[in-house]
Amino acid sequence: MLKQSQMLIPTLREVPADAEIASHKLLLRAGMARQLASGIYTYLPLALRTLHKIQAIVREEMNNAGGQELLMPAMQPAELWHQTGRWDVYGPELVRLRDRHDRSFALGPTHEEVITSLVRDEINSYKKLPINLYQIQTKFRDEVRPRFGLIRCREFIMKDAYSFDTTQEGLDRNFQAMYDAYTNIFTRVGLNFRAVEADAGAIGGKGTYEFMALCDIGEDTIAYSEEGDFAANLEKAEVVYQPAAKPATETPAPEKLHTPGVKTIEQLTKALQIEAKQIVKSLLYKVDDKLVMVLVRGDHELNEVKLKNLYDASIVGLATEADILSVTGAPAGFVGPVGLDSEKVEIIADNNVQDVFDGVVGANETDYHIQHVQPGRDYTVSRYADLRNITEEDVCPRTGGAIKFARGVEVGHVFKLGTKYSTALGATFLDENGRSQPMIMGCYGIGVSRTIAAVIEQNNDENGIIWPVAVAPFHVHVIPVNVKVEEQRQTSEQITEVLRKAGVEVLFDDRPERAGVKFKDADLIGLPLRITVSDKAAEEGTVEIRVRKTGETVHVKLDEIASEVKALLARVDRTGAELFGV
Q1: How many domains does the chain have?
Q2: 387-422 burial, b if ≥16 CB within 10 A, otherwise e?
Q3: Name one GO molecular function term (predicted).
Q4: Which residue of 299, 369, 412, 433 sits 20 to 30 Å from the alpha carbon of 580, by its own alpha carbon?
């Protein structure tokens, strides 16, 4: 019997000062987690129970989809990362260290290199493929700004799976199996989520989807259409270019304007009394080792992921002030495409820039801009492409319908890696004709610990957490109004034992606290059902059951307690019927 007096559940009355969002506040207040260092948390008993339940759901669905579980080392030799080229390009998020023999290692943020080297050494024939291997393990990423509790940590728990196939069709089948498994997982844990098209980022590969838990605090923006199934991360969402009609009148000749101290789009619109869409922003970027000037309309935002993908680049970032001055002769805020030396810098532009027929650009001279500028006539663009973020003024690339935005937290990601890692690490197999071929890979990750925070973020009220049945630390909270009254204590213990034998997990609050204190803690912890044992248990043979999610209360006879509890759990949560067979 799990008695609350004997468990480590250090609830807090006050909201911790450093907690910004609901899930972070509630994880701390409900005694579920404690911070050891920035972005590094201890999972206390309640949180660990939920973590184990999420892991069990993940394992069941992964195994059903053909996955095999293993466990790989967190400490990875640098040589593997050098072979794939990621040691230098992954960035400062990679936790690097040296052992006593001065050998370089990384604490794994992900395991593409390790799993590929393992399969390379153990499998060499098409007869042993396909295979899908997964693990649930602690990962490490030295985030520049850990925040939001378990949403963005430096140490976190992740499920990562890797498939190896002989054909693209085989990869497609494995990918679909993982997509379906993820849909089942996030449905079962009680999340409101959406799968969205996404960019693969540092992991690489094509054909990727993020599984987003929808919530206002999400760090990612999702563009979607209500008229179809289109949904994409902002960095991935395609913009449909709709050419504007060319004006009937000729654009006047360019005119140089004195604009002292006027650098930003907002300052220009006020100073010149024009709209932002009449301005062309000129942004100088370093794309690997190449300097590129990127032009976007003043009311649009450059999408750096699209720029990186256009060049298939490893590193993309704004040019230094020194580079800007050397190429343009002016500081940022006054640079533009007119008169630039194409030998020094390539000029590219977002598709919509070609419709700015009478625009304003920087003059490449401090405190000056040029108006009445037209692309093709006054400056040359080497190529146009989709380089900006989609807006709610754009149309859906699938249906042509309206675009809307939502916020989301990424809880899962599925990638089609192809042969990026197998080629780099020599993971090959002999096909039916005895020819050596690179294995075709997929990669599939779930933020297991982040999922706890996402569930809380979607399931809470002003009093505390409201756990879905499938991942609640316990199903029922049994609370005697006065534990010192022998009849109440004995009845509470009997209820706890009856429910335990019926497969219901119970937390028995045996603390000698006032009833109001215990009720507040119960709401804060947020178990699906609360059973209050009062004098009515002895007088009438009944107890009160309160549903945390709805506030509904019912009075139940003691001899019907097990069946009524199971029925209530099944009714208040879609996973309850599966768990209790009701």
Answers
A1: 3
A2: bbbbeeebebbeeeeebeebebbbbbbbbbbbebbb
A3: transferase activity
A4: 412
